[in-house]
Amino acid sequence: xxxxxxxxxxxxxxxxxxxxxxxxxxxxxxxxxxxxxxxxxxxxxxxxxxxxxxxxxxxxxxxxxxxxxxxxxxxxxxxxxxxxxxxxxxxxxxxxxxxxxxxxxxxxxxxxxxxxxxxxxxxxxxxxxxxxxxxxxxxxxxxxxxxxxxxxxxxxxxxxxxxxxxxxxxxxxxxxxxxxxxxxxxxxxxxxxxxxxxxxxxxxxxxxxxxxxxxxxxxxxxxxxxxxxxxxxxxxxxxxxxxxxxxxxxxxxxxxxxxxxxxxxxxxxxxxxxxxxxxxxxxxxxxxxxxxxxxx
Length: 296
Prior knowledge:
With 296 residues, this protein is α+β, with helices and mostly antiparallel strands. It contains 6 helices and 11 strands. Strands 4-11-10-7-8 form a 5-stranded mixed beta sheet, with no helix packed on it. It is flat, with a radius of gyration of 59 Å.
């Protein structure tokens, strides 16, 4: 073999050796990378798991404040009932009563007072004050008085009523020589909510009505007083009998025995008087019968 061919083969071998060494290093690096990748993946998985746990913790911690706030702000079912209206006609007020959810654990509490309405026609009313000279009349209303509009009318037989200039809730009328009739309409938002009529008598008619009116108040007070006195007396008697029941029983027993003795004495006296009333012939006949029986 020539020297040139030997040099070429040596260079070729050297090149192949370097290529094999480079391939070996690259394979070792790949293996190291493959060996080290799982821990990195595991750490990444742990980080993801930690993040998920933190997010889940955040999600779990989120509703807790809501639950804590839901306790004090718990919805309470409130039950409401309405009281009786203060009037049977026109406008009045009534109480709104809460029967569940009252503060302080009370069974009932008044929430508010609201307006209530009945039939508009209130018929014939009575004056709020009157004397022999004048009369004061009042329309049906609630507080505040200026909430409503009032229309006063002077009623006339077989004629249209006369609308008066007074638009207040109170009307002062001087008595006339003839009886007068007035009507007041209470209006709320162009709607008549109450209407009441009054009769204003003359002075003479008023005096006659007062004199002919029976004094029922005095009689009623007298009857109630007597009834109360009788009830108190009966109660005291019953209490006395209950407390002294033994003495009462002994008293009634002695009285009953005395009555029996008197009845027995009366019967004995009756028998004696009957025997004395018999005739001597009857007595002699009885003696003969007795002697004949003895002789036999």
